[in-house]
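# nightly structure sweep
# worker-07 picked up a monomer target from the shared queue
# config: single-sequence mode, recycle default, output format = structure tokens
# input follows
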Amino acid sequence: MKAVIQRASSASVTVKGEIISSIATGVVILLGITPEDTSEDIQWLSNKIANLRIFGDEQDVMNLSLLDVGGDAIVVSQFTLMASTKKGNRPSYTKAAPPKIATPLYEEFIQKLESILNKKVGTGVFGADMKVELINDGPVTIIIDTKNKI
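# output follows
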């Protein structure tokens, strides 16, 4: 499982011209899932993201987490994070989980993050053509891969 976390001062997801999720201060999480990913990956990654100290304290030092600031989150499925670009110029997405595997894991990740944050998490629409708009605050962008926990 791979996640790109972007600290945002605002963000939204639009599908077919309709805003389906929006947040103020928080994070946008682009989530890529492989067939090998498990509930253990979800547990580890959701805890890591909720507690990642990427928000400024009183001295504007990144010492506060999403939990500390009461921030919001949007989770967007992003199979292209699993792209392989080793050969040629056309990315291969064979490492991405197919929808029948990825959809339940995506939904489980959202439920776990909601449980940790104790609030509703915004989402995209799995498999839809989405427009993600955000103001990346900082900018702060962190990439986490559950295959590299150590």
